[in-house]
């Protein structure tokens, strides 16, 4: 498996001869495209078309928290150095030489995409999955992750969504009520003005 990981990495990883425009595009995707996760969560909560969307936001948020906790734990139990820390390939994105498996970026975007596939609409989840695939490619292309780091993020995302779904009957209603109370307290002025949804 390790040999396959290295072979795939060297096949995807950019080289000094790679096109400058492609390196710039990959850098934008690797660093900035992940912002879609918090922006979409905030937008759906504040302006979502119906109350069921907030249940999606909460379930997705719990899945993300669980997935990131699992990712942290796996990184501690199965530490794996990044490619550049092993002197393999070419690095085009500045990054600390910390443990790489599973990818936090991959975990976040794949959990988000899977949540939308499971709990929203197939088309929205598939679109987010395509964005996740682009992020995964860019971070391998720029030399800061292994392909298996991204596969690990996908698998951890599945576990996060599974936990959130199974625990929903216990935490869903009480946590939703609490969040609504906090939200209405903090955003009361904006709600009264009609700038955000009640």
Q: Could you name the key traits of this structure?
A:
198 residues; mainly alpha; 72% helix; undecaprenyl-diphosphatase activity; membrane; hydrolase
Explain briefly what this protein structure is.
The protein is mainly α.
Characterize the structure shown:
With 198 residues, this protein is mainly α. It has one domain (2-191): Vanadium-containing Chloroperoxidase, domain 1 (Up-down Bundle), CATH 1.20.144. The chain is 72% helix and 0% strand. The chain contains 8 helices and no strands. Helix 4 packs antiparallel against helix 5 (104-119) and helix 5 (104-119) packs antiparallel against helix 6. The radius of gyration is 19 Å and the shape is elongated. The N and C termini lie far apart (51 Å). The mean pLDDT is 92. This is undecaprenyl-diphosphate phosphatase. GO terms for molecular function: undecaprenyl-diphosphatase activity. Residues 57-165 form the Phosphatidic acid phosphatase type 2/haloperoxidase domain.
Please render the helix and strand layout as text.
Blueprint (H helix, E strand, L loop, with lengths): L1 H11 L7 H13 L3 H12 L4 H26 L26 H16 L2 H20 L5 H40 L1 H5 L6
Helix pairs in contact: 2-6, 4-5, 4-7, 5-6, 5-7
Pfam family, one: PAP2
GO molecular function, one term: undecaprenyl-diphosphatase activity
InterPro entries: PAP2/HPO, PAP2/HPO_sf, UPP_Pase
């Amino acid at each position: 498996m390790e040999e396959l990981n290295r072979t795939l990495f060297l096949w995807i990883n950019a080289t000094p001869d790679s096109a400058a425009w492609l390196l710039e595009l990959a850098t934008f995707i690797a660093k900035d495209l992940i912002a879609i996760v918090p922006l979409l969560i905030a937008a759906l909560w504040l302006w979502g078309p119906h109350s069921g969307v907030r249940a999606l936001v909460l379930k997705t948020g719990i899945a993300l928290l669980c997935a990131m906790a699992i990712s942290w734990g796996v990184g501690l139990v199965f530490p794996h150095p990044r490619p550049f820390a092993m002197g393999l390939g070419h690095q085009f994105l500045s990054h600390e030489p910390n443990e790489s498996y599973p990818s936090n970026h991959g975990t976040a975007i794949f959990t988000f995409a899977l949540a939308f596939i499971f709990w929203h609409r197939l088309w929205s989840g598939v679109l987010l999955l395509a964005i996740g695939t682009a992020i995964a490619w860019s971070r391998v292309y720029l030399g800061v992750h292994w392909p298996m780091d991204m596969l690990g993020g996908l698998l951890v995302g599945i576990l996060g969504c599974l936990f959130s779904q199974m625990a929903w009957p216990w935490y869903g209603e009480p946590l939703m009520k609490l969040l609504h109370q906090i939200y209405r307290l903090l955003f009361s002025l904006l709600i009264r003005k009609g700038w955000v949804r009640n």
